[in-house]
Write a structure and sequence with these properties.
The protein is an alpha/beta fold and 306 residues long. The chain is built from 11 helices and 6 strands. Pfam families: Prenyltransf.
Length: 306
């Protein structure tokens, strides 16, 4: 297929996918895997792979804003990344420093009122990276239209362990009663938290695991997960739209599961109420609020079928 035909086909496919989407998540989190493998396959340096991945991240920000998604979290540097060779770590720190400053000064960031926030054990990062984190957060602190969370020196298990230790210390000191321990108490001890719970996690590069990423905000919210094979620099808008379609299909399936349970419950109320519930389940009536009936069953995502 010629380059022109391939481009036209891609545009048509994007339009088709966009027409199929009528419900989008509010918060998407991305594990940007495959930069180094992409560079190796292309015969390039690891640094070039990371820089091309950064370009994909910039595109993703635009795609999210086009769809009306309100929050994006990207896994830029994990606690495990500290174990990489020193030269690779320094190259990553250089890239993070450059891109954060570029984002903080970009006209499109200020025109679209993007609030930039860092999540993680920021004090473990070099001073120069900490300084640019402070600069980016301060420049965009007052914006509310869109939130961009950048996970740096982040590890979900470390986050939960540190929070637990701080809570136990408060209990030992007598400043916190075990009876007062609740969700708000735990969240107050986590890293600078996302504004919203995570609705969808995307992982590129072929691995089907969430790698210790936002366990409190994603797993606790039973977020949908979309795994795909392209390396992060190759991640495309059609692939992104397919991930949104996965989220949408899952939400609709969950809704039908709740309605099925509601129908089972109202059967005991008489034939009239049961018939009303059946009409709702068939889509011929409005959907009632049936929250609290119980957790819905998980459904398969459509990553393989797309």
């Amino acid at each position: 297929m010629s380059g022109w035909l391939r481009k036209q086909w891609r545009r048509l496919y994007e339009r088709l996918l966009r027409r199929e989407i009528d419900d989008v998540p509010t918060h998407v989190a991305v594990i940007q895997d495959g930069n180094r493998r992409y560079a190796r396959r292309q015969g390039e340096t690891k640094s070039n792979g990371h820089r091309k991945g950064a370009q994909t991240t910039e595109q993703l920000l635009e795609w999210c804003q086009e769809l009306g998604i309100q929050e994006l979290t990207v896994y830029a540097f994990s606690t495990e990344n500290f174990e990489r060779p020193p030269d690779e770590r320094e190259a990553l720190f250089d890239l993070i420093e450059d891109k954060l400053r570029e984002f903080a000064d970009a006209d499109r960031v200020h025109e679209n009122e993007v609030c930039i926030r860092a999540l993680g054990d920021i004090e473990r990062l070099p001073d120069r990276v900490q300084e640019v984190v402070d600069y980016a957060e301060e420049r965009t602190r007052e914006y509310e239209s869109f939130v961009l969370n950048i996970a740096l020196a982040y590890g979900g298990r470390s986050e939960l362990l540190s929070a637990t230790r701080r809570i136990l210390q408060q209990v030992d000191e007598g400043t916190l009663s075990p009876d007062d321990l609740d969700v708000e108490t735990v969240e107050s001890q986590l890293y600078d938290r996302p504004v919203r719970a995570v609705d969808l996690i995307i992982r590129t590069g072929g691995d089907e695991r969430t790698s210790n990423f936002l366990p409190w905000y994603a797993n606790g919210n039973e977020a949908a997960v979309y795994f795909c094979t392209p390396y992060w620099p190759e991640f495309s808008k059609p692939e992104f739209l397919r991930s949104i379609r996965t989220y949408q299909h899952r939400e609709k399936a969950w809704q039908r599961t709740r309605l099925s349970r509601a129908l089972t419950l109202v059967k005991g109320l008489g034939d009239t109420r049961a018939e009303e519930a059946r009409r709702i389940l068939d889509g011929s009536d409005d959907v009632p609020d049936v929250d609290g009936i119980g957790p819905a069953l998980p459904v398969e995502d459509d990553a393989e079928s797309a």
